[in-house]
């Protein structure tokens, strides 16, 4: 399967998630591309849209390789396979971690004024990204939702690598993926149209959601 773009992929996922409509879920996208997919799902399910702020801890000089990820609430998750391969020194890892923390703080300052965090306690949360390559950021995001008291967590993505999904088994209540592949070196290769998503795009989606759905759902 070759996905057309993030919006159409989100619409296809929404069709798979139609059974959730009566549960009145909260849909949370991982910035940035995941928010575009999540927006299409939230619109179809008539659910509130939010971001869940996580940040990849990148291998220095190799932004696509994740040593792990951090999330809101001081969550830190490692990626053992990449850690074994990259073997960063403690000082290198600490620098990468501080870079990720600074990026997470910047995004929080930028995004939260547009859409205050939606309550997820005792609710169904749909956690969305445009692809799951290693699973590190998704694991961090799931931990954040558990800490915030979500009653049920569903992970949704248009495409995911099989090894990454294995790391999520037992962490989420359900995983919905359109296409599972053996390896996912580049998420963009799975789409016909995969333009960069900027902060302004995410802010626009959040502001539109805030206007169409009252805070708190």
From TrEMBL:
Phosphoribosyltransferase domain span: 20-160
Keywords recorded for this protein, A-Z: Glycosyltransferase, Transferase
Classification via Pfam families: Pribosyltran (PF00156)
Keyword Cell cycle belongs to the record: no
GO molecular function: glycosyltransferase activity
Protein name in UniProt: Phosphoribosyltransferase family protein
InterPro entries tied to this protein: PRTase-like, PRTase_dom
Coiled-coil parts of chain: none
Organism: Amycolatopsis cynarae
Keyword Transferase among UniProt keywords: yes
């Amino acid at each position: 399967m070759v996905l057309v773009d993030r919006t159409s992929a989100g619409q296809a996922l929404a069709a798979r998630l139609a059974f959730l409509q009566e549960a009145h879920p909260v849909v949370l996208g991982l910035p940035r591309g995941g928010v575009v997919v999540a927006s299409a799902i939230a619109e179809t399910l008539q659910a509130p849209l939010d971001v869940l702020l996580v940040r990849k801890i990148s291998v220095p000089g190799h932004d696509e390789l994740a040593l792990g990820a951090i999330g809101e609430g001081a969550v830190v998750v490692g990626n053992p396979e990449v850690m074994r391969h990259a073997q960063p020194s403690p000082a290198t890892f600490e620098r990468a971690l501080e870079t990720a923390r600074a990026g997470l703080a910047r995004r929080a300052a930028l995004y939260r004024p547009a859409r205050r965090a939606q309550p997820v306690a005792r609710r169904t949360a749909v956690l969305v990204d445009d692809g799951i390559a290693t699973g590190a950021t998704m694991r961090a995001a799931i931990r954040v939702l558990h800490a915030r008291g979500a009653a049920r967590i569903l992970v949704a993505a248009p495409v995911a690598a099989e090894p990454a999904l294995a790391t999520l088994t037992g962490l989420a209540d359900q995983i919905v993926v359109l296409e599972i592949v053996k390896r996912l070196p580049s998420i963009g290769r799975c789409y016909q149209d995969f333009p960069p998503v900027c902060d302004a795009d995410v802010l626009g989606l959040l502001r539109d959601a805030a206007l169409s759905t009252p805070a708190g759902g």
